[in-house]
Amino acid sequence: MSGPRADPAPLFDLVTGFPPDDAVDVVLPIPLSLAVYMTMLESTGHAAELAVLRKIHVDQARETVRGIQAGFCDPAADGASPRARITHIVEERVPRVNGLRPHLHAYVGATLRSPGPVVAVDLEHLAALADSDLLPAHRDGLATATAERAGLVWGETAWSPREIVGIDWLTERTEQARHDDLSCRGPWPRQQIVAG
Question: What percent of the chain has pLDDT over 70?
Answer without folding.
Answer: 92
